[in-house]
Amino acid sequence: MNVADSMRVASSLEKLGYHNTEKPADADVIILNTCVVRQSAEDKAIGRLSSLKPLKMNNPDLVINLMGCLVGVKDNPRLKKRFPYVDVFSAPSDPVPLIHHLLEKEGRTLELEGTLERFAYMDGDLVIPAVDQGNLVSSFIPVVLGCSHACTYCIIPYRRGVEKSRPPQEILAEAHALVQQGVKEITLLGQIVDRYGADQSDYPTLAGILRRLHAIDGLERIRFLTSHPNYMTDELLEVVADYPKVMPHIEVPIQAGNDQVLENMRRGYTHQQYRELIARIREKIAGVSIATDIIVGFPGETDSQYQDTYDLIADLKLDVVHLARYSPRTGTVSDRRMPDDVPDEEKWRRFRLLEDLQEGIVADIHATYLSTTVPVLFEEKSKKGRWRGRTETNKLVFVDSPQDLRGRIAAVNIDWTGPWSMLGHLNP
Ligand code: SAM
Fold first, then answer.
1. Residue closest by Cα to atom 1 of ligand 1
2. What span, in angstroms and rounded, lies between the C-alpha atoms of 326 and 344?
3. Which of 120, 235, 294, 300 has a CA that sits 20 to 30 A from residue 357's CA?
4. Atom 13, ligand 1: residue with shortest CA distance
5. How many angstroms is it from 209 CA to the middle of ligand 1?
6. 288 Cβ below 6 A of ligand 1
7. In Å, how far are 81, 89, 114 from 78, measured between CA atoms?
8. Which of 250, 266, 293 has most ligand 1 atoms within 8 Å of its beta carbon, as the pocket-test mutant?
């Protein structure tokens, strides 16, 4: 989501005549777009922000914009007091305060009103920033902003605000604009992306949006994330199964494999319901790959409750498990009401055990690709000079080739597989 937001801010600034620089010391404007989903992300953001202070001291004209979840959607006087050298504070997905500041600073007040209107976030008229022009194969379109689900551990609803779907015409206009600029793959984003349209009376469903995107000539692949187990409809699964440009890859977090922990997290389903969902997805979509998220060390999580998560992951054999150690976030329900009582070493132990388990599972899944031929969409050359692309199931594939493969879908014979990637050669 932040990558998508940053691209849109860069695009807005280029419309004002700014361009990208390589080094912060050369910049007139620095935007720090922040994530605070875990304490480690927040610490990183604060560290980076503090490292910008000397630049501002040397160059008082420098404009520093702090953006994203560290700021949140509400006014944040404590943050303003703590970082007086920040010129502009802006909420996630909102470039308007920065544009306002820059236009005013330049005395371009006459242009202000019209410009702000045109730059209202994501106006569909999206121009890929110059650094990425001609290079960008895969891009994101946020379709649901904010989140209203309120899992007890999660800070996102407090910082990104309530759930709000974007108008379908805006999404389609943006997709057309991206494809005209060479993008081949679009990933639709939302905290609970399958709730798209649920907050509006006259919007299509996510499945409806996928069908409309499917009709765009030149768009080769469509993905969406993240799903929530309670909102995964048969209509959506059928679109994935029946529309060849919609990729067979589902990201649907479970978070924990024990019902009491799930209830404490206020996720709204049981582990059995999740297992049934995975069976339903696999039944409907041939060759599907599935990713999940797990939080270990949630308050009160006992050894045996953790074991339920471990057993579930061992049983389901999913393609990807995004692992996190529970991190209390100020203001959330779990932080206020549930002591963070699993010691850090124990969180690490649980994390590593699951990491090892999943590494073996993925290595086995990937080994089934050996000697098969799969379509790969190539995105860029890696540092080692190999072309890097993804299968329809979102697996990373590297290929040595003298040809320019950027943006091409090519059949690849898989010669080697490991837990994190595969190597192959172009099918002659
Ligand atoms: N909104 C989606 C959902 O929850 O189903 C997923 C997106 S969420 C921003 C990304 C992941 O961060 C979550 O799935 C969760 O595993 C992790 N996460 C969120 N809050 C956390 C916390 N307080 N501590 C550790 N991990 C957390």
1. 191
2. 9
3. 300
4. 293
5. 25
6. no
7. 5, 12, 32
8. 293
Is the CB of residue 295 below 6 angstroms from any atom belonging to ligand 1?
A: yes
In what side-by-side order are the strands of the sheet with 88-90? Answer: 29-34, 63-68, 88-90
Distance from Cα 20 to the centre of ligand 1, integer Å = 32
Q: Quick one: which atom of ligand 1 is closest to the CA of 334?
A: 23
> pLDDT tens track of the chain, all 428 residues?
999 999 989 988 998 889 999 999 999 999 999 999 999 999 999 999 999 999 999 999 999 999 999 999 988 899 999 999 999 999 998 888 998 899 888 777 656 666 665 555 555 678 898 888 889 999 999 999 999 998 999 999 999 999 999 999 999 999 999 999 999 999 999 999 999 999 999 999 999 999 999 999 999 999 999 999 999 999 999 999 999 999 999 999 999 999 999 999 999 999 999 999 999 999 999 999 999 999 999 999 999 999 999 999 999 999 999 999 999 999 999 999 999 999 999 999 999 999 999 999 999 999 999 999 999 999 999 989 999 999 999 999 999 999 999 999 999 999 999 999 999 999 88
Three-class SS state of 255: strand
Distance CA(210)–CA(215), nearest Å, equals: 9
Ligand 1 contact, 326 CB (< 6 A): yes
CA distance to 157, 300, 370, per residue, from 331 (Å): 11, 19, 48
pTM (two decimals)? 0.94
**Which residue's CA lies nearest to atom 19 of ligand 1?**
154
Tell me: cis bond preceding 226? Omega within 30 of 0 counts: yes
Q: Exposure of 16 by Cβ count < 10 A (0-12 exposed, 13-18 middle, 19+ buried)? A: middle
User: How far is the centre of ligand 1, averaged over its atoms, from the C-alpha of 296 (Å)?
Assistant: 11
